Amino acid sequence: MSLEEVRKKIDSIDQQLLRLLNERAELVHAVGEIKRKDDLDIYVPGREDQLLRKLAELNRAQNGRLTERAIRAIFREIMSAALALEDSLKIAYLGPAGSWTHQAAVNKFGHCVEYLPEASTESVFGRVASQDADYGVLPIEHSTEGAVHHTLDHLADSALQIYAEILWKADVAVMAQSPTAAISEIHGRAQMLARCGPWLAQSFPGSKLVEAASSNAAAALAAQSASIAALGTPLSAELHGLRVIAASPREYATQTRLIILGRRSGPPSGNDNTMLMIHSRDRVGALMEVLQVFATRNINVRQIENRPTPCGTQARFFLEISGHHADATIRQAVAALEEHAVHVKTLGSYPAPGWVEER
Length: 359
Description:
Layout: H1 3-37, H2 45-61, H3 68-86, E1 90-94, H4 100-109, E2 114-118, H5 121-129, E3 135-142, E4 146-147, H6 149-157, E5 161-170, E6 173-176, E7 185-188, H7 190-203, E8 208-211, H8 215-224, E9 228-232, H9 234-239, E10 243-247, E11 254-262, E12 272-281, H10 286-295, E13 301-307, E14 314-322, H11 328-339, E15 343-351, E16 356-358
Parallel strand pairs: 1-2, 1-3, 5-16, 7-8, 7-9
Antiparallel strand pairs: 3-4, 3-11, 5-11, 6-9, 6-10, 12-14, 12-15, 13-14
Helix pairs in contact: 1-3, 2-3
């Protein structure tokens, strides 16, 4: 076929795609009406994951040229547009526009919903609690820095719960006004500069590394001077009109777990995790007794974090276990702990993530 014939065929396919997308939007609207009538959540993470996995499997079965990551990105935006049609979904997130948490939130919810930047963990909790936001996105664990204690402590004191989880692989982008500009300075957060120092020294010899208060502040400076580059997210480059001139090698990437904070737990998906906060007496063997309750019921304890309490006579543990809090075995385990004067609080149940988001 000639170039013109190929283009005409693409135009015809685009017309069909547009018609089908609008048909899909009508059906999504019908689903939204049913959910509102029955007081159900518009966003259901388990259903979303099930749909994306099914589409990836269909693509493989058809020997499709598109990668699974491309399929997920395309349909994530289709679903984002549908969510925006049904309700003006608002997502509060930690950090300024272009932060790592903002980037992870956009990868999860798409570009069509509304995002609300917040300067503190407390502010994200406040937005969701007051219903000014439908959900909040917060980091709960970094692969290099461990658990994010601010998030855990706020969960312990709040009625809000974990609704879903995001696994996010963060590559560092070097951004500047032009890929051909002579870069004299590279600005970024201290931790990021330290981690990427050897790579930056090799890729940008002679460039001075300068600490910035935030990745957003670094990008703002780069937008003002052609000789300054910034470290941050690809989203930050988009927001500041910059070009990504280099991306960090795979060995410099970090992985972050983030929670989607809601006013209730996620519904059972068939493959869930649950976060519990446990207060027990601060004595020898206290943690072992707690773990034994789960072990005897064949419940997998996936992770343990210990945090101090205002009262020195108690120990506080955060446990992530396999299963949903509505499962009979987990309800039995919680009841057994409470019989031994152990206080248990469910911080949320959510689908176990089977996909690492990245950009």
